[in-house]
Amino acid sequence: MDRPKSAEPLVTVRDLAFARDSRAIFQDLNLTVARGSVTAIIGGSGTGKTTLLSLIGGRLAPARGTVEVAGEVVGGLPRKQLFALRKRMGMLFQSSALLTDLDVFENVAFPMREHTRLPEALIHHLVLMKLEMVGLRGARDLFPAELSGGMSRRVALARAIALDPMMVMYDEPFAGLDPISMGVVVKLIRELNDALDMTSIVVTHDVAETCTIADYVYLLGSGRVIAEGTPADMKKTDAPEVRQFMGGLPDGPVAFHYPAQPYLDDLMTANRS
Amino acid sequence: MQARGVEFSVGLFVVAGLLALAMLALKVGNIHVLNSGETYAVTADFNDVGSLKPKAPVTVAGVRVGQVARITVDPVTYQAVVTLDILKKYRFPVDSSASIQTAGLLGEQYVSLSPGGSQRYLGNGGKIRITQSAIILEKIISQLLYSKAGQSPGHS
Amino acid sequence: MNPVAWISGLGRRVIAGIGRLGRATLFLARLMPALGAALARGRLVVQQIYMTGVLTLVIVVVSGAFVGMILALQGYNTLVRYDAQSSLGLLVALSLTRELGPVLTALLFAGRAGSALTAEIGLMKATEQLDGMEMMAVDPLPRVVAPRFWAGWIAVPLLAMIFSAVGIIGAYLVAVGDLGLDGGVFWSQMQSGVSVSNDIMGGLVKSVVFGFVVSWIAVFEGYDAKPTSEGVSRATTRTVVSSSLAILGLDFIMTAFMLRGL
């Protein structure tokens, strides 16, 4: 397509199908994430954005098709190799998922303590370095319960990059943040991506913020990619689905109403049961 | 750091638990060192063992010297065969006698040994020949009532 | 109510119960290999023994003392009718070491620490902490679940021994201080009647079994909880209810075997 061919893909999703409780979430999903890019995956609520991250992280297995990360097919990996791969991926959960019984310092140190045998002094330096990057070196002794939503998401970000991963996945990184915190997180995603030479996948429904930092955007709908391109392309397009989502229109190809029988019929049969 | 406090209190907790176990074993249970290697077995036949049970104490002059190992019935004589495990440091003459007694009115029954005068001693598998069966309270009472009943017409 | 519906409701519950038991067993099978790994990192286990055992200690000591004192009063009241009050120490010691120590300790532990274990693991699940660990390539079974399981299993027998010992001391204080019994008789009757191998070790075996079962139920319910606040609170209730029933049912079975000298 019209994306730069020079960038080799880090993540390749091919003909992916996945269903949960017999409800199809993806059918024939295809997308690639170029190494070094910030790729946004945008879609309405319930379009399976978070499920896609679980598939990439190997927490779910696809019903059909493949997910390839750094040349390895994630779905069929034995646990040991899967864990080895995950050490090279960071993930930022919407709820931050900080360990509530550890303070900020220990939360960031957690992956290092679990996966490395670094001396204590080095861990100390590394943790302070990661915290400095997200601007929370001063909050190292606080517990997760004492942090605001924006701060805990930044701590989680410091933890996600603790082992210098090749890629970080962000699950709704902007949800529930005030404008200032949101601006901070937006800036951090781009800066860290470039400074640490990572690849970022941002799953979100905040179109405007995402378009300021993303290199490439996928718009998901009804189980497949309905539009893709650079943020500039997406704004120019006149495909109705894209226009509806990018412009935030309540009704359009994605209907306002959940599928139902005609309203009048429903009223007439109300006392049937 | 506070980790030191955690470790200390956990250590204290474990020590308290083990001390409690030691107290139960020594002070409450009075640990009885009765391993098979340190005892020898003798048997004694009784006409009636009453409510004697395995593990009941075997005493001489009120001091515990062993315990009842098992109680069976001789298929020929229909007498009760009681096997006693006795500590090796106590030796008893072959003409010693055994009786089943009760500790207090409602207490448990135990075997009391009275040493004889012989120069030969009981060994493992030996047999005590002189025995006195358990005193069954109900039997004594009924005998008493019988004899009273038999006497009373003559006296009145 | 419609009897057919009632019977099918009963059947549905039985099927669901068997399903839970099966899931709990599968969970235990998955937990087993993690137990060794957790033990290799003793610090985590020590931390959890503190959280479960040490914090349950106060309630166990207080309850044990009261139960012992109550047993002394009640036992004396009955024994004195047969002029057998010299057996009071024996009565108290046998009641505590065989039954009340292991059973009451396990029940208290289920209520105080077991429910907390369930709630803690359930909340970690609800707040995506367990998922987060998975994504950091850390298996939560050896890191989170196994240390808590070990801690509960280790703590319950220790607590049961403390309960019995404190109870006997409490009974002694009442018997000698208040009821005027002779201290020597109190202890000597106890010593002649309590068997270490049967009564004390039997009680210890019971509490080891209870510790295993309560810890198993608590971590399973937490791990199996629906990741919502309602799911966690239901799981916590289930831990207390199923632990209590399991303790009493197993106690009956073990007592029956032990008293028959199997």
Structural class of chain B: alpha/beta
CATH class of the largest domain in chain A: Alpha Beta
- Compressed to H and E, one letter per element, the order of chain B equals HEEEEEEEEH
Percent range for helical residues of chain B? 25-40%
- Globally, the shape of chain B reads elongated
- How many individual β-strands of chain A? 10
Q: What's the alpha carbon Rg of chain A, rounded to whole Å?
A: 20 Å
Biggest sheet layout of chain A: 6 strands, mixed
- Tally of discrete structural domains of chain A: 2
Can you tell me about this structure?
The complex is a heterotrimer of chains A (273), B (156) and C (262). Chain A is an alpha/beta fold and 273 residues long. Chain A folds into two domains: 9-88 and 165-272, 3-Layer(aba) Sandwich (Rossmann fold); 106-163, no CATH class. In chain A, 36% of the residues lie in helices and 24% in strands. Chain A is built from ten helices and ten strands. In chain A, the strands form two sheets. In chain A, strands 6-7-8-3-9-10 form a six-stranded mixed sheet, sandwiched between helices. A four-stranded antiparallel sheet of chain A has the order 2-1-4-5, with helices on one face. Chain B has an eight-stranded mixed sheet, with no helix packed on it. Chain C is mainly α and 262 residues long. Chain C has one domain. In chain C, 89% of the residues lie in helices and 0% in strands. Chain C has eight helices and no strands. Chain C starts with a helix and ends with a helix. Classes of the chains: A alpha/beta (273), B alpha/beta (156), C mainly alpha (262). Chains in contact: A-C, B-C. The A-C interface holds A 57, 59, 83-84, 86-87, 89, 91, 93-95, 97-100, 110-111, 114-115, 159 and C 123-124, 127-129, 131-139, 143.
